[in-house]
Specification:
By secondary structure, the chain is an alpha+beta fold. It contains 4 helices and 9 strands, in the order E-E-E-H-E-E-E-E-E-H-H-E-H. The strands form 2 sheets. A 6-stranded antiparallel beta sheet has the order 1-2-3-9-8-5. Strands 4-6-7 form a 3-stranded antiparallel beta sheet. Strand 6 and strand 7 form a beta hairpin. The chain is globular and about 35 Å long.
């Protein structure tokens, strides 16, 4: 299983990559494998403040629909437009082209409570 050490993770299977004062957020390799073929990503929180652990969108797979939970509090600055036409990018490249949103970071201290790759790996049995 792919768990980049440079990322932080949540128990709800989201990852976060911090670049300066913005964060890229997506779902983990483990999550996309569990969901199966992703057919649609629905995110309607652009320009909205989302609190830590609140739902910022949903991801739809052939088998199920799952909520996407924000790892931090912040404003959704950008939604990955590539996912509109190619939701399968979440399956093929969950940590790269399959990112879902770019957010501002309202409370940097929240990052401290997220899981390192080793802890997330233990959580999912990797």
């Amino acid at each position: 299983m792919n768990l980049p050490a440079s990322l932080k993770y949540t128990k709800e299977h989201e990852w976060i990559r911090v670049e300066g004062d913005v964060a890229f957020i997506g779902i983990t390799d483990h999550a996309q494998k569990e969901l199966g073929d992703i057919v649609y990503v629905d995110i309607d929180t652009l320009d909205k403040e989302v609190a830590q652990n609140d739902v910022f969108g949903t991801v739809e797979a052939v088998k199920t629909v799952s909520d996407l939970f924000s790892p931090i509090t912040g404003t959704v600055l950008e939604i990955n437009e590539k996912l509109d036409g190619s939701p399968e990018l979440v399956n093929s490249d969950p940590y790269g082209d399959g990112w879902m949103v770019k957010m501002s970071i309202s409370n940097p201290a929240e990052l401290e409570g997220l899981l390192a790759s080793e802890a997330y790996g233990e959580l999912v049995g990797a």
